[in-house]
Design brief:
alpha/beta, 8 strands, binds NADP nicotinamide-adenine-dinucleotide phosphate, 3-beta-hydroxysteroid 3-dehydrogenase (NADP+) activity, SDR_fam, NAD(P)-bd_dom_sf, 3beta-hydroxysteroid 3-dehydrogenase
Length: about 325
């Protein structure tokens, strides 16, 4: 199931990312914050996005305090809200940000502790699906031409989708994708991650077919928990009890800082190709290695059904032809 990595990966010694710009969703906490920190430390400019101005400001301050000469700015973006996604993407496309290029997007934001009862967004979508999957389907579509325009002879821009090892725990084929029949909190999470993985694989095939110079890669962070993660003021401040509880899981868990390594590798390692799936060597923890996605999320029929369902629910189709026409290089 797990193949060996082509080379050791040290998050503190990434390939130089100077001149590149990345956007990270859910960057104010957890994996998104630590991935942003690793990218910034390697010289990248990072647009930290999140839904709360105060939490974003705290992450921005923390990052500037921890990384000398950090190049970073913030973007208000609620991935469960189509209007917020379109407004945020429009400001990125319109060049309101410091660097008028986009070399990659880390589609990280997500709900892990899913609500016990089914909840819906303002436009009536099941909340976990809308946040973890559908919002990123819309965001990636909105940013596709910006990504393709940033392609060069030396770099193919990437989108990285956040899957999960839980997708291997059973079939979980999302037929009732919005769980309108029987909602279960756990099922909502696993299904949303099957959808994310299916979209990530399908996107890469469609990008290749359309000749768009953008790669779609999948990554998962294993089991990464806050109580095993360094304290960062305003970003990760677990109490003593959480430290003890999470400490008991040490043999199977890792820090969010370490978990972020697989995400960052999927985003910047030039030896990785579109469509690949990366995660920790020992599934829940360890160094980033190439792995295989679950059978369900890579099944062509499941992928096609999920892609078409997301098109229908979002009311949009990806602008493949335009992205190919406007591509850089
Ligand atoms: N941790 C793991 O072991 C694990 C395993 C497999 C996959 N993953 C995936 O990794 C990703 C990050 O997980 P994590 O452990 O870092 O979780 P986390 O610490 O709970 O952080 C989640 C991030 O997503 C943001 N977010 C949630 N809803 C949002 C919305 N509607 N709009 C914008 N941002 C929103 C949160 O912002 P707020 O602060 O505003 O809530 C926060 O920044 C998720 O997609 C998760 O499914 C995690």
């Amino acid at each position: 199931m797990t193949e060996s990595a082509p080379a050791p990966w040290d998050p503190a010694r990434l390939p130089d990312q100077s001149g590149r710009t990345f956007l990270v969703t859910g960057a104010n906490a957890g994996l998104g914050y630590f991935a942003s920190e690793q990218l910034v430390a390697a010289g990248a400019h990072v647009i930290l996005s999140g839904r709360s101005p105060n939490r974003l400001a705290a992450a921005h301050d923390a990052l500037e305090a921890r990384v000398p000469d950090a190049s970073v700015e913030t973007l208000l973006l609620d991935v469960s809200n189509a209007g917020s996604i379109r407004a945020a993407a429009a400001s990125v496309r319109g060049g309101l940000f410091k660097r008028q290029r986009l070399d990659g997007v880390l589609l990280n934001a997500g709900i892990i502790h899913t609500p016990r009862q089914r909840e819906t967004t303002r436009d009536g979508r099941e909340l976990v699906l809308a946040t973890n999957a559908l919002g990123h389907f819309v965001l990636a579509s909105e940013l596709l031409t910006t990504l393709s325009k940033s392609a060069s002879r030396t770099w193919t821009p990437r989108m990285v989708w956040l899957g999960s090892a839980v997708t291997r725990m059973g079939a979980y084929d999302p037929v009732d994708i919005q769980l309108e029949g029987r909602y279960r909190a756990w099922r909502a999470y696993v299904q949303s991650k099957v959808v994310v993985q299916a979209l990530g694989i399908e996107a890469d095939l469609r990008l290749k077919d359309a000749g768009v110079p953008v790669e779609s890669v999948l990554a998962h962070p294993g089991y990464s928990i806050g109580g095993r993660t360094p304290r960062v003021a305003g970003v990760n401040e677990p109490g003593a009890w959480k430290r003890v509880r999470d400490g008991l899981q040490a043999p199977i868990a890792q820090s969010k800082e370490r978990g972020a390594a697989s995400l960052v590798r999927a985003l910047v390692d030039p030896s990785i190709a579109g469509g690949e799936y990366w995660g920790p060597r020992h599934v829940t923890r360890g160094d980033p290695t190439r792995q295989q996605p679950s059978k369900t999320s890579s099944d062509p029929e499941v992928r096609l059904r999920i892609w078409e369902t997301c098109e229908r629910l979002s009311g949009m189709e990806w602008p493949f032809a335009r992205a190919a026409r406007l591509a850089g290089r």
